Amino acid sequence: MVWDTLSAHHFPVGALSAGGIDNRSRDLAFENPSERLTQFESLLHQWEPLVFETCRQLLVDRQTAELVCSGAFIALFFSDAQIDDNSPMLLGALLDFVIRNACHIGGSPNSATPEHLYCRRLCQLTPVGRFLITMRFVNRLEIDQIARMLDVKASEVHVRLWDAMIEMEQSINCSGTN
Question: Is the dihedral of CA 33, 35, 38, 42 positive or negative?
């Protein structure tokens, strides 16, 4: 999905504004394109299924989810981020691109897809909401590793992490913090 878009040098709707891509960033990405593409390929194989699935949950139709997911990865690729660093912070940046892409596409008057097919509630996300979604990404990435370390089923880890997320969300909501 993303590779087709990259190889064609085509940017999905919203990719340019979502990542703040400009000529300088594009030049940075292609100073050593072979090395950057190798790093990006590793990142893409690890994270694209998770990012796409989240886009799929947040957006109404598959085509829009694909556009948003592709745009987010492309924005990350052409940003000045060090993509050889598979850290939660980089994943947070990727998620931010997802949110910006979805909001941009949803509000675009030139969008080919009717507006009602886009954002369900992305535009209303508070910083806390973004944080919670980011944490869900990170948790999903680490579930298998935690399960192996504790010698338990991944489903058990998932349930416990999910319960902890709900508890944290409720405590944040009760305190009235955004």
Answer: negative
3-state secondary structure of 119: strand
pTM (global) more than 0.85: no
Whether the Cβ atoms of residue 12 and residue 76 lie closer than 8 Å to each other? no
Q: What amino acid occupies position 92?
A: G
Sign of CA dihedral 37, 38, 41, 46: negative
Can you state the percent helix, strand and coil of the chain, rounding each to 5? Answer: 75, 0, 25
| Grouped pLDDT means (10 residues each) for the chain, 178 residues | 42 39 46 69 78 77 77 74 68 75 54 38 50 56 72 78 67 56
Cα–Cα distance, 140 to 133 (Å, whole number): 11
Query: Minimal CA–CA distance to 101: which of 135, 81, 63, 73?
Result: 73
